[in-house]
Amino acid sequence: MSEAKTTRLYKQVFVLGIVIILGAGYFLVRSVIMVSSDIKTTATVIKIEQVFKRAGETTSTYIPTVRYTTETGRVVTKSTGFGSSMYNYDVGEKVTVYYDEKNPTSFNIVVPLSSWALPVIGLLFGCLILWSAKKL
Asked: ∠43-49-53 over CA atoms, to 5°?
């Protein structure tokens, strides 16, 4: 491989590693901020909407609607507004949510794998890509 191609490949792999690290870092920091500043409570799943992305596709996402009571006694019933395959809950199931004290209808369902493990794996993967780029 010519030196110019190697240099271009190095730059592309390096940029990919940086993008993965920044993305994973963002989600990790977001999780830390959520846990440290938002209020934790238990919500009940009252509805699950199953959405198929394309006709005939077997993979689907789930959009849960949950109900929880804030510290001030306000009852909030709200959908997440977006789907995830990790939101495969049963109606009546209890889930942990964090909500914003100033805006109690703004909440996040805690999914341990996506909250902590995936960002950490992303950081490690990004570092591995950067390390391997040095070998080019």
From this structure: 130
